[in-house]
Amino acid sequence: MATTEGQLDGKDGGGEPQIGWRHTFQQVKGDPTARFGLYVIAIATSIAVFSAVDANLSRATMGVYPDYTIGEWLPVLENPERMPPPTEMEPYQPPVFAEGGSWANPLGTDQAGRDYLSRIIYGARVSMAVGFFATFLGLTGGVLIGAVAGYYGGRIDDVLMRFVEIIYSIPALVLVIVFTVFVSGGNPDVIYAVLGVGIATIPVFSRIIRSRVLSVREMDYIEAARAAGVKDRNIIRRHVIPNSFAPVLVYATLQIGFAILIVAGLSFLGYGAQPPTPDWGQMLNHAHGQMHVNPWMSIWPGVAILITIMGFNLFGDGLQDALDPRIDN
Amino acid sequence: MNQNTILSVDGLRTHFYTEQGVVRAVDDISFDVRQGEIVGIVGESGAGKSVATTSILRLIEEPGEIVAGEITYQDTTIVGFDERSDGTLVPKDEMLTNRQMRSQVRGNEIAIIFQDPMESLNPVYTVGNQLQEFIELNRDLSGSAAKKEGIDVLREVGIPEPEARFGDYPHEFSGGMRQRVLIAMALACRPNLIIADEPTTALDVTVEGQILNLVSDLQEEYGTSFIWVTHDMGVVAEICDRVNVMYLGKIVEQGPVDEIFYDTKHPYTKALLESVPRPDRTVDELNPIVGTMPSAIDPPRGCRFHTRCPDAREACREVDPQFVDVSETPDTEHRTACIKYDDVGYWDSVPLEHASEQDTSYIDEDQRPENRDLEQTEGEP
Amino acid sequence: MTLLRYTISRFVQAIPVLIGISFITFVMVNALPGDPVAIMLEGQEVDRETIEAVERRYGLDRPFHERFVTYMLGLVQGDLGYSFHRDMPVSQLMWIRLGPTLMLVFSAFVFALVTAVPLGVLAAKRRNEPTDHVSRLVALVGVSTPSFWIGIMLILIFAVWLGWLPSGRLVYPWRDPAHYGFDGRLELYYQTIRHLLLPMVALGTLQMATIMRIERSSMVESLQEDYVQLARAYGVPERTILRKHAFRAAQLPIITIVGLNLSTALGGAVLIETVFEINGMGRLLIQSIQQLDYQVVMGVTIVLATIFVIGVIITDISYAYVDPRVSYGDRE
Q1: Is A22 helix (H, G, I), strand (E, B) or coil?
Q2: Which fold has domain A25-70+102-323?
Q3: Is B354 among the domain residues?
Q4: Domain map of chain A by residue range?
Q5: Are strands B81-83 and B89-91 parallel, antiparallel or unpaired?
Q6: Taking the CB of residue C1, how many other CB atoms lie within 10 A of it?
Q7: Which residues of chain B neighbour C222 with C-beta distances below 8 Å?
Q8: What's the domain count of chain B?
C-alpha cells in the first residue's frame, strides 16, 4: 500500500482533481456513520486475528473446558499439571435470559454442548478471512484484466470483457457453489470458497478499472509517457492503476461485505467451512433444523453476519462520499 | 420611485449557511425594473447574479435563505420583513404565501429563462408536453387551446414546422432551438416580467446574435419587461436599457446603459469594459481583470473590490463605500459605490502597493480553505 | 434502427455469451476428479463392465472436447442431457422447476419495487429529515442482512410463534384447485398469496434496500436538475414536480439495476427455496449437487444464467423504450 499511497499523493496528476488520502481520511473521520463502520470492522478484524491464540478456541470448536474464562485459563497454561479433566457438556442449553439458561453460556450451547457465544466470536475468523482474501483475489484479477483490456483495447478488450460478462452472467452464489463442490472434487472447503468468490468478484473490479483506464489513457501525460518510450506495462502499473484506485477502494470495501454474504449462504447450504470450524452460515444451517425446538439458535449467527456486513457497508458508503467530488458538503 | 416601476428590490440579502461558513451571495442590493425596459445585471460568475434573480421568484433552497430586504412586485410583497422590538426580523403579514407565489406570481407574472438550454428541458417528456403544461397552469387555456397556443408561440420564436416539432423530445433540438423553446415557454405564459439568466452564454456567437434579435423584436411586440443577467458587456450594450454591475454580492454601479459605457465611474466596471473587445473603441491590447474573485464567505473588508482594484488606496481597505449619485443630469440616476466619489479621504490616501495582485494579507493564509485548494490545483501540470 | 431490430441484435449478441456460459459450466462440472459413474453408483454392487456400459451409453468414454460438442449440439436442440438420478430428461425437469423459481423471483421484484420506489421518493423529498434517516437505516440493514436468515426469522415469527402464515412450500396458481383440496379458484389464489408472502419478502428485502438507495439518490439528483427548477419557476405544484417532472427521469437507473440485480435474486432464490422447501430450480441445484447428478447441475446453472442474460436484455430494451434519448444503434 505504501507505494500506491505515495503515487496517489504525488503530482503525476489524474484525469480529475486528485483527492489526497489525508483529505479522504479527514472526511471519513468527520462522518459518524463511516466512523462507526470502521469501528465495527476493526473489532471484527481484531477478534478474527487475535482469537487464534486464545484458549477459548477449544471451547468454541471442541467444547472441552467450557467453564474457563481467559483469565482463569492463563495460569493453567503455565502449569499444565493443573489441567482439569474435561467437563461434561450439555447440548442445546438455552441462552441466559431464557428459562434454564446460565451465565456460563450466555447464549446457550450448540448440538455438541459447545458455548454458542464463543462459537459466534470465532465465527468471525472464517467470515473475515474469506471476505478479505476473496476480495483481494477478485481485486487483483479484476484490476489486471480491466487494466489490460482497457489499455490495449481492440481484440484483447473484446475477448477479456466477453469473459468477464460470462462470469458475471452466472449468478454469483450458483457459480461459487458449483465451483466449490466440483472443483474440490466433492470435498468442499473454505479455500475453494475463497477461490470461487474471488472469481465471482472479478467482473465488478475489471469493469470499474476498465472504464477508468479508458478515460485515463486519453490523458496527455500518458501520451507523453508513451512518446518518451515508457513501456506499456510500466504505464499501466505506474500511472493507470494508481489513478483508478479511488473507486476500486470503495468497491473493495463494499465487496468484502458481499463476499461474507455469499460465503454465509454457501456455508448455510453446507458447502463452506466444514465442522468443527465455527462459522456463522454453518451454524445457521444446523439452527434451521432446530427452528421449532431451539429457535434462539437461529438468531445470533444472523445478527453477527448483519453487524459485520453493515460495518463494511457503512465504511464503504462513507468512503464513497469522501471520494466523490460531486458531493460537496 | 418611478411610477412605471413594476419590480423593486430593496436591501436584499440572501445568505447560504454552509459548513465552511455563511456565504453572503447577495449582500444588500437594491435595484428596480420599469414597465417595458430591459434591465441588465452584469458581473463575473459567482458575483451573486443568479442568486439575486432566484430570490425574486423565492426559489432559494436549503441551505440558502433570504435574510433581509424587500422585494415588491407591483402592489404585492414578494419578500418583506418587519423588525420586532428585540431586533429580529419576521416576515411581513402581507408577504405572499408559498402557495400564492406559486399560483399568482411564478410563470404568469414573472417567468424565467435559464442559462443552460441543454439542461432546462426534461429529457423524458416532449417539448410540447412541457410547454402545454406551463400554458395550462398559467393561463386560462386548457387542452387543445393550450396546445394551439403553444404551437403559435413556437412559430413566433422562429421554430420551423412547429406542429411537427411540438411532439419532439428535447434531444432532437439543437442548443439554439432549445433556447427558443425556453423563450417560447416564457412568452406563452404572458408574464409581465421575464428574468433571463444568462440565456445565451451556452450558445454559439451566431446563435446568440439571433436570439438577441429575437428577444428585442418580441420585447417590442409584447412590451414585456426583462431582467437580463449576463457576464458579457457586449450583450448589455446590445439590448439593455439600464444596467446593474454586481461584484461579490453587491451592486457597485448602476445607471442607464449609455452612462455606464461612456461615463464609467467604478473601477470594476471599467475593468469589465476593458476586458472585452469593443467595436467603438480601439485599444492596443485587452486588459483582463487580474486575480480571482475572493470568496463570499470572507469578503475583503472595506471595498470588496480593493484586492483587485488598480486604483485601490489605503482608505479602500477601511471604508465600506456607500452608493453615491454621480448623475450629471437629475434624471439619469447614475449611482456608484466607490469612495473616489465620496468625501471620505480617498485622494489623501496612499495607493496600495500590490498594484493589482491578489491581496490576501488581511487574513491568515491557512484559514482560507479555498486558498489551499487553489495552490494545489495551480501546482498541477 | 427500430425497436424490433434492436431487440434481435441484442439477442444475437447474447449467443457467444451463452456459449461461453455453457463452456465454463461444462468445464467446472467436468473438473470433478474420479469417475462420475462410479461415484454415482457408489454403494451399489456393480462390476467394471456395467460401469463401462453406462459410460458408453452416455458417451462418457469419449474425450472432453467431443463430449462438449455433443452437449452443445444437444443444447441447441433443447436437449439438456439426462438425469441419472431422477431418470428423466433434464429439460423436462427444468420445465417443472422453472415455474416456482420465476414466480418467486418475479414476486420478490414486485414487492421490492412497490415498497422501495415510494419510500425512496419520500426519503429524497424529506432529505435529511427523520423520514430520510429511518428509510436509509432500513435500506442499510436490508443490504447487510443475508436473505436466508431473514427467511428463517420470518418463519420463526410468522409461522412458528404467531402461526399466521405457512412456514414453507408454495401453492401454484396454475394447478387444479382440487390438487390441494381447495374449493375453487379464489381459495387457490388466496392460498398462493399466503404461501408466497414470506419467501417473497425474504428474497425481496435485499432488492428493496438496493432499489431504495438508488431511488433516493436518483431522485435527490433529479430534484436538483434545471428542468425541475424551471417547473418550479413556472408555478408547478410540488406534488406534480415529484410525480411528473422529477420522477420519470429518475427511474432510468432503477430499470438498469433491476436487470443487473436479477443475478443476486436468482442466487438468493437457491437459498430461499432451501429455507422454504420450495421445489424450484435452486432446490433442484442443491439436491443434484448432493447427488452429484451433474447433468442436472449443468442444466440448472446454464438455465439460471440464461434467465439473467434474457432479463438484462429485457431491461435494456425497456430502458431504450422509456428513455427517448437512446438511439438503438448506439448501445452495446
Answers
A1: helix
A2: MetI-like fold (1.10.3720)
A3: yes
A4: 25-70+102-323
A5: antiparallel
A6: 13
A7: none
A8: 1
Q: Is the pLDDT of residue A303 over 90?
A: yes
Q: Chain C partners of A182 at a C-beta cutoff of 8 Å?
A: 28-32, 294, 297
Asked, for residue B10, whether it belongs to a domain, the answer is no
First to last CA, chain A: 28
Contact check, Cβ <8 Å, B111/C234: yes
* A11 lies within 8 A of chain B by CB: yes
- Report d(CA B30, CA B12) in Å as an integer: 7
Of B111, B121, B189, the CB nearest to C227: B121
Please list the residues that pair with B72 across neighbouring strands.
B8, B77
Taking residue B163's Cβ as centre, other Cβ atoms within 10 Å add up to: 12
ipTM rounded to 2 decimals: 0.89
- Rounded average pLDDT over C171-181: 85
Q: What are the backbone angles phi and psi of residue B256, rounded to the nearest 5°?
A: -65, 150
Average pLDDT, chain C: 87
Distance from CA of A12 to the nearest CA of B (A): 8
Residue of A nearest to C303 (CA): A170
The grid cell for B83 is 423588525
Mapping DSSP onto H, E and C, the string for A192-228 reads HHHHHHHHHHHHHHHHHHHHHHHHHCCCHHHHHHHHC
Of B106, B169, B171, the CB nearest to C233: B106
Give me the torsion for CA of B326, B331, B333, B338, rounded to 10°. Answer: 0
Q: What is the pLDDT of residue C320?
A: 84
- The architecture in CATH of the region C96-322 reads Orthogonal Bundle (1.10)
Q: Where on the phi/psi map is residue A318: left (φ > 0), alpha (ψ -120 to 50), or beta?
A: alpha
**Do the bridges between strand B242-247 and strand B250-256 make them parallel or antiparallel, or are there none, so unpaired?**
antiparallel
pLDDT at position A16, please?
A: 41
